[in-house]
Amino acid sequence: ESIIENIDKKDGAIGAFLYVDKEGALKAAEKADRLRRDGKSAALLGIPVAIKDNICTEGTKTTCASKMLENFVPPYDATVVKKLKEAGAIIVGKTNMDEFAMGSSTENSAFKKTVNPWNFDRVPGGSSGGSAAAVAASEVPAALGSDTGGSIRQPASFCGVVGLKPTYGRVSRYGLVAFASSLDQIGPFARDVEDAAMLLSVIAGQDEMDSTSVPGRENCFLDGIRDGIKGLKIGLPKEYYGEGVSSDVRESVLAMVKRLEGLGAFVEETSLPYSEYALAAYYIISSAEASSNLARYDGIRYGHRASEYDDLIDLYARSRSEGFGKEVKRRIMLGTYVLSSGYYDAYYKKALKVRTLIKNDFDRAFEKYDVLISPTSPTVAFRFGEKSNPLEMYLADILTVPINIAGLPAISVPCGLASGLPVGLQIIGKPFDEKTILRTAYAVQ
Ligand code: GLN
């Protein structure tokens, strides 16, 4: 009740939630109380969690912040939601986001504006801006988001909370509305590293409904989290500290790295030479996959259907024209273009080759280092409307997209303030080595 009351009080100003499920949450809370009275326990018994609105919740609208899915009520729970419920968590509601997770500021939501709780003139980041803001404003202790190119880590960084993108395959994507299937991954937002580890422990694991999910080799990500970082080998990829990274962000991160050195870590500069091609490769691969994934919204099977049309083709065209926002259309056009015959080899196939080179860069670095550390975002949270040019908005993702391209785990942890706004430090790990990034993150906070 106090959580709901608090959301009622705060969310008018913050705008983190698209939907608050008061009735469902109170019913789940009563059940949790009953279980507790009976002496039962579960990992998240009675813990309120918010869910990004591209993750399916049975019987509760899942809109992807798009007019296309304005009235879509999924008939099933995503695997992560099912797991949260089984662990006793209370699903409080659905959070705002950039439409279909395309964006870096949550300004692309078709429905509402979410502000940064630190400064209402600034964006919360995106695309999981609602989840980040809900945790930062203490509306809920934890939330789930999705990260295709930074959408958990960047808003976590802008809002001063912890955000974790697990290794590709660590968490089931069943019930996550697909944006770019080879990059998408669900992960937690929390106020501290232990809470994030606890949430990951609950949602991780192989799922027969997602053939890309892998068997969990460990599932308690809290184990060893406090063991310290003596002897840990940290690489600082120099490309992640260069041009475009604001000097106060760089200084905050490097000051924290110094502290880690003081705690016994070994720190050295390194290089990921293909980094400069990551952003271009990302926007080609992700848009190509998006154009294919979003072909299902044809006005027939799902979502919005135009009320007036001449024939079938006209029905498709009008439904999609009316249902999708500007950025989503831009990605679909870009994606169909790079996949079209004549351009496929020049763009899409080339981008896949670059993807391999980027992956090789990381493999080489991880022969020598346990983790890599960089800023999460080149700047602190920017102002609304500041990045009205889409290319400028894309540049905000330059430090997060390479990690998705390589399928690696990475976490953003708060590391101080610059101009009164939170700075995020990104720790990148070897595939399926979430434990080491969590242990390092624990030392940072
Ligand atoms: N900002 C990036 C994009 O717009 C990343 C989005 C995401 O991770 N979902 O594609």
Automatic annotation (TrEMBL):
GO terms for molecular function: ATP binding; glutaminyl-tRNA synthase (glutamine-hydrolyzing) activity; transferase activity. Gene3D superfamilies: Amidase signature (AS) domain. One of its GO terms (biological process) is translation. One of its GO terms (cellular component) is glutamyl-tRNA(Gln) amidotransferase complex. It comes from the Bacteria. It catalyses: L-glutamyl-tRNA(Gln) + L-glutamine + ATP + H2O = L-glutaminyl-tRNA(Gln) + L-glutamate + ADP + phosphate + H(+). Residues 1-438 form the Amidase domain. Coiled coil: none annotated. Its EC number is 6.3.5.7. It is an enzyme of class 6 (ligase). It holds the Pfam family Amidase. Keywords: ATP-binding, Ligase, Nucleotide-binding, Protein biosynthesis, Transferase. The active site is at K52 (charge relay system), S127 (charge relay system), S151 (acyl-ester intermediate). Heterotrimer of A, B and C subunits. Allows the formation of correctly charged Gln-tRNA(Gln) through the transamidation of misacylated Glu-tRNA(Gln) in organisms which lack glutaminyl-tRNA synthetase. The reaction takes place in the presence of glutamine and ATP through an activated gamma-phospho-Glu-tRNA(Gln). HAMAP family: GatA (MF_00120). NCBIfam families: gatA. Belongs to the amidase family. GatA subfamily. This is Glutamyl-tRNA(Gln) amidotransferase subunit A. The gene is gatA.
